[in-house]
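User: Could you go from structure to sequence for me? I need the amino acid at each position, not a summary. Structure tokens:
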């Protein structure tokens, strides 16, 4: 068997030899080891040329960036908004107001960059909330005579009407911290200034009585800080908080104090609301005139006793429970627990009317 294999092997070699002779006449070199490659004798590697490194840029040698001003297109194409959007501050700029803005006779210090920025931010906020502005305008139209009369009676500047607008939008709102009413009085502050806050009565929700209490509190703050601007700030953050900030920073100027974000914007919110409500057309806003049905004529019913059911009381007085509650939002329960020695005046309609949207 070995012999047969050897014969096949010899036959194969002879066939290959014959083919190679026919092809070129050269004998193939069988089993020759290829020449070794010496890596160290190869040509040195030449990397591809690298692009030239750009010259270093010195940021301090650059020209200052130019402010880009973009025109704002108001939502209503019939209204031309005479202001621009500053891309750096993201706030509307109102050149019509000029540089001499005041709050209660105290200058706004518009020469300070932070003051101009914060004021612009508030104008920009209300430009993006036009429905709210219309609501504020309508509410001011309704309650301005009554509130201004109370402010002037106590000698508080008219601008503080817009403090109430900033606080609540002239609605009986409730804050997460428990402040209530147009003037957002806390329970203890309200009690300190003669308002009843009990299970069945909350006089913070009485527009007239709460305005009276707020005025007396503002007068106290003004006497303490000798500035209406600081009185407004203290109304927002609390007298103790403002006093600590003044002592800690050694500054008694609202515009130079570092306060919490809400109080830092508070005064500018009031100023912006004043101009937007009083001069809407000049600043590109529409005049608000939301429909509200109100009671035309009312009378006062004196009450010096407990009322077990306000629903029954309303029926006896010729009205209904819903209208009674609408006219007397300070009645917060379905009955009245009389405080010892106190006399209440409950507002009732003279003729049948329907409670409006509030």
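Assistant: Here is the amino acid at each position, in order:
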């Amino acid at each position: 068997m070995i012999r047969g294999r050897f014969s096949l092997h010899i036959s194969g070699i002879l066939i290959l030899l014959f083919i190679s002779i026919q092809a070129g006449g050269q004998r193939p070199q069988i089993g020759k080891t290829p020449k070794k490659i010496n890596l160290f004798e190869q040509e040195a590697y030449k990397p591809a040329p690298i692009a030239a490194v750009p010259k270093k840029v010195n940021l301090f040698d650059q020209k200052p960036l130019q402010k880009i001003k973009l025109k704002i297109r108001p939502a209503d194409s019939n209204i031309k908004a005479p202001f621009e959007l500053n891309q750096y501050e993201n706030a509307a700029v109102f050149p019509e107001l000029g540089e001499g803005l005041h709050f209660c006779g105290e200058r706004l210090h518009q020469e300070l960059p932070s003051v101009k920025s914060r004021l612009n931010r508030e104008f920009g906020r209300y430009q993006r909330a036009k429905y709210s502005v219309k609501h504020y305008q309508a509410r001011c139209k309704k309650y301005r005579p009554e509130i201004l009369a109370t402010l002037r009676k106590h000698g508080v500047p008219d601008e503080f009407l817009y403090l109430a607008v900033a606080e609540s939008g002239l609605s009986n709102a409730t804050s997460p911290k428990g402040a209530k009413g147009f003037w957002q009085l806390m329970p203890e502050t309200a009690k300190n200034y003669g308002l009843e806050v009990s299970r069945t009565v909350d006089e913070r929700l009485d527009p007239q009585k709460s305005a009276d209490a707020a005025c007396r509190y503002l007068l106290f703050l003004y006497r303490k800080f000798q500035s209406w601007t600081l009185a407004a700030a203290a109304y927002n953050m609390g007298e103790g908080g403002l006093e600590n900030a003044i002592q800690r920073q050694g500054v008694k100027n609202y515009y130079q104090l570092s306060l919490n974000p809400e109080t830092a914007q508070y005064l500018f919110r009031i100023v912006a609301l004043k101009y937007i409500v009083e001069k809407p057309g000049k600043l590109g806003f529409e005049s608000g005139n939301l429909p509200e049905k109100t009671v035309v004529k009312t009378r006062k019913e004196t009450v010096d006793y407990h009322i077990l059911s306000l629903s029954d009381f309303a029926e006896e007085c010729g009205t209904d429970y819903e209208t009674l509650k609408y006219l007397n939002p300070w009645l917060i329960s379905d009955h009245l627990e009389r405080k010892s020695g106190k006399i209440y005046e409950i507002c009732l309609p003279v003729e049948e009317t329907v409670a409006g949207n509030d």
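One structural detail worth keeping in mind: The chain has two domains: 69-278, 298-349.
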